[in-house]
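Researcher: I'd like a structural prediction for the single chain below. Treat it as a standalone chain; there are no partners to consider.
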Amino acid sequence: MSTRDRWQNLVRRDRVFDFVAEGRFPLVQGRHPVVEGELDLSHGTILYLDDVTVSFDGFKALNKLNLQIDAGELRCIIGPNGAGKTTMMDVITGKTRPDEGKVFFGQTIDLTRRQEHEIASIGIGRKFQKPTIFPEHSVFENLELAMKARKDVWNSLRLKLTSEDLDYIDKVLLNIGLKDEVSRLAGLLSHGQKQWLEIGMLLMQGPKLLLVDEPVAGMTPQEVERTGEMLVSLAGEQSVVVVEHDMAFVRSIANKVTVLHEGSVLAEGNMDKVQSDPKVIEVYLGGED
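Model: Treating it as a single chain, here is the predicted structure.
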């Protein structure tokens, strides 16, 4: 090996050590660095928010927020209006940039350096309160369009579905409970079914993390029950974060609940622990029946 080659190897080795020290390329299995930009779940955690602060005209919507979500976990986020729940999701999806703090997807992907469309493409899907579907298209066509949206935009209209694509659509239809509605126009679905279809459209894009905002608002009791079963079944293959105000629904699906207040974590644990916490009772549950 020439002197030049030895020098280049030393430079590369030292740079890797720098990245490890900075937390950018954590070492796995003792020796090999993870490639930056690839989702690394070697520590079992898919999402990190570290001392995240967001201010609007002097008001701190998030105030040194710290949160970790495990890979495959279903977590419920609750809290009074203005607690920072929506801002938290805006930060995760790149809609809002934090003033301070770190937001990582796995060990190596810094979400604060990514644009919204990039964050969606690397495996984070967000469902808003109001479903966004194509009402004049069938359930199947909505799922097909969602699948094509993750592919080459210019060629998507000419793409033909493969047998693997069709199998995946069948799997999603089964997951969201719309197998028997596959040919029905989306605009004719019930409110709950429209919510399920939008979740299915997100699933077609292969997310590793789903953010779901108030999924059962306006649903019938039967739809609420089915939605809970669906979200529980999705956890494992992907991580699911649910923001919800319906405490009975939260209790029915969550092993772990995080309570936000004034932009920070007020309490965290199972539902019994959270509901018996004096601080939570004072600021959030005091008015609950």
